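2024-03-11 09:14:02 INFO receiving multi-entity request
2024-03-11 09:14:02 INFO entity count = two
2024-03-11 09:14:03 INFO echoing inputs for audit
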Amino acid sequence: MVWRRKGEILPRFAKLSAENLEAANTLIEAYKTHIGEKKKVLKAKVTDLENKGFEYRFVRGLALLLDRRGTFTCNSKINPVDLRRKIFQATENYGLPTSSEKRRKILAGAASETTLTTENIEEYLYADLDDELILEKFDPPSASELLQQYNLSLTQTLLFDSTELSFTASGNWQRLFYFIKKLGLIYEAYQDNGFWVKIDGPASLFKLTRRYGISIAKLLPTIVANPEWSVNAKVLWRYTNEVCNLKIESRRQGALLKKPSLPLVTYDSAAEQNFASQFQALKSEWTLKREPEPLKAGKHVIIPDFSLERSGVKVYLEIVGFWTEEYLQRKAEKLRQVNAKMLLLVDEALACEKLAKLEKPRQLDLIYYQNTIPLAPILRYLKSAFQEVKAQEIKILESLPIKFTEPVVDYDEFAARIGMSTEAVKAVIATNPPTGYVALPNFLVSKEKLTKIDTQIEERLRQSGKLSLTEATRILETEGISDASGALTTLGYKITWHGISSEQAEVSKTTK
Amino acid sequence: MPRLWFDKGTLLFNGVIATPYGKYDPRSGYYRLKASHYKDATDYLKESRIRFEDNVPNLPPLEQLKSKVELRAYQNKALDNWRHAGNRGVLVLPTAAGKTFIALKAIDLLRTQTLIIVPTLDLIDQWRKRVRECLGVETGVVGGGENTVRMVTVSTYDSAYSQAPQLGNQFMFLVFDEVHHLASPGYMQIGEMYIAPYRMGLTATYERSDQRHSLLPLLVGEPVYSIDVEQLTGKHLAPYTYEKISVELTPEEQRTYDEAMNTFKNYLRQRRIVLKSAADFQRFIMTTGRDPAAREALLARNKALRVAVNSEAKLDLLGEKLEEYKNEKILIFTLYNDLVYAISRRFLIPAVTYQTPREERREIMANFGNGRYKVIVTSQVLDEGVDVPDASVGLVLGGTGSTREYVQRLGRLLRKKEDKTAKLVEIISKETMEVGISRRRRTKTGGTNAASE
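2024-03-11 09:21:47 INFO inference complete, emitting structure
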């Protein structure tokens, strides 16, 4: 059930192929038609299928999952335990039935004391044994659901032997951290192309141990419930005792694993929900995201309620429920270790202490409110945060000895490359372009390049006396400039529109 | 002030001083220690005159014990050796030599919070009863759906392992019944995740075939006392006689058997596989996952074995034996649950398997003890340490071929009783693989051998 090579390990996933779906369907049908039958009859049927060409461990695995969807009950008019007590007592009274004649007499004697026949007694004597139970109800899954459940179980079984697991996911963080804590695991957060969490347990510090494997496996369904996720686990392969890497991700295995249904976006309070819908209605330049990626705060992790983003500037929001002053102080302590801007929204009505005057803890951005979250102060905060970040960035940019070698620099692309806002980049570079460069509205272009372009356009104009905007755009694009009209204006050309098509728009030299 | 506290089966220390047993844990920013180093670490800190706050133990209240334990000479010697080894170590005594009483006496002497760890739920009941009788207190129980902690608490290995993060700081003394279990890869962490400085291991079979018993000194202490069956036989334990009877398969059974065995042997011959050791067999089992022919061969072998074990002729002979010993208390052992129930149905006698409801099992064992039931049939659940009061005849039909299992099963018959000669009768099928298994099982076994073949 496992594929293993060169230290890599993977479950042998059942693909959702026609053949596997048929196997799943055959089994589901078998369970459906065996309602009312004894478990041992059903087992015999499953064994029969095992021997009919399907891989036997695959069939057995599916059957195990189907067993859990069945209700098995004991079919007896009398409690078998009471019946056995009666019979064994009779044996002690009459002596061991070493002949079949004697046995028959004992059973008949016992039967006469009840309303049962001797056949009933034979039937009910061990009716409570697992094999003798009756399949009373069965809740059939679809064939693909069964295969996905099988794949999930297979992966979990392999994770029972895991020593640690790292994962990243597109959401569900609050739930994930809640489970990590509840399962007695320890996490470490780190950045590696996104926010990753590594989990193991307290005793993992001393040696590799499978001890936390079961807890780790229990976390898997919550991880794969996300649309995007990635899992790297270390599995101590029990037969060779070597550590193998298990690597699965939504891109490759997502469709093979069953996603448990978790409510996707849940709001902790009406306050949050109201705030979210009101803010969305504003249609501001800020993009609101609910339950964004967690933030690393020293040894801890903070999961903010919202993130707000505007051209590279990120601000986090947290709506605080019941609170005490000490709570806010602790929060401030945590936030000091976070390299991000975070605003706390605190409902005065939810204070657990009666304070005459609420001291604002130092180094903590917070807004007190009553009943509904006010948008105006938040927007003010955002604006100042944006300005602040921009001002800081400008300061940094101004102190940087920036030298460009490429002839064309896209502000957006450059800002993203150095992790700053486009606004700051424009503010510094466009207002004071480096020597040898000319600032266009969206680009920085070397004078050399500009001259080359200018020559080309002039050449064309001289040859045909006329140049359409389409043609001019083509020339500019070949030179790596996509913002044609901006560039043309800077070069001293004007565009005369004769219609709405750029074919008919004409480029000509501005006469000074 | 630096603080030491318990964190899910380990200890954390927030001082800036590295203790010899601690390891810096970058995940928490503290020094982390194995819980089993609790005493060493606190001793070190005290000797070094480092002031610290000890928040580790979370002990249930002490209760008043009323001791009624009187030990025999050899039991006293065993206890003395253990005391001299610093209240640590393993005692190796045969089944029925009264290991329980030595442990109870130790609890009485130490008068501290104690966790008794046992392999089965049956043993929980048994220890609970003994503690009540001998120490006059009720026990806490962790396992089998119960979860109460008291000064003296009994738990299964499974629960002691899985609940170590919660239980690890609640006891100062651990008693490991059938301590050879502790050496298994999972359970050995019980030894590491509990703070208890005092530890006692009890077993009849110290050595494990996988050699892992070499780990026990670290987890419990060295073996400090050992006495074998021969030294006790006649003195404290009843002697027993051993008889082996071979019966022929019925012609039809023989045909099925030969057919199945040929399938198996042909496969081995074709693939040039030689099965000599348990490891060889394990490797063969592994190949059955990939190779359908190997699986077919394995199924054939199991079928042959089942025919041999479940032979009709054996049941007839069993009937004769039951007749012969009809005034004695008889225990019938067999490997297969199917056979247990076939025997139970045929002779209308109580059966005990892993499927028997706990209440019913308790009732059957009690009735067998007080003589209301004279015969019971069982598979493997009674294997270890469970008191089966004074059975005088054991009838064995089949087995797995492990040495330990055989010793323990014999032990079941060795309860000391006036003028009792226990009988062990093994019924096997002639000219089958089973002969081999039975011979392997007999090695390393003491006792007088009156085989009549």
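2024-03-11 09:21:48 INFO post-check: Chain B has four domains: 3-55, 73-227, 240-248+311-442, 251-309.
2024-03-11 09:21:48 INFO post-check: The interface with chain A takes residues 7-10, 23, 25-29, 32, 34, 165, 185-186, 189, 192-193, 286, 289, 295, 319-320, 322-323, 326, 341, 344-350, 355, 357, 359-360, 363, 372-375 of chain B (CB under 8 Å).
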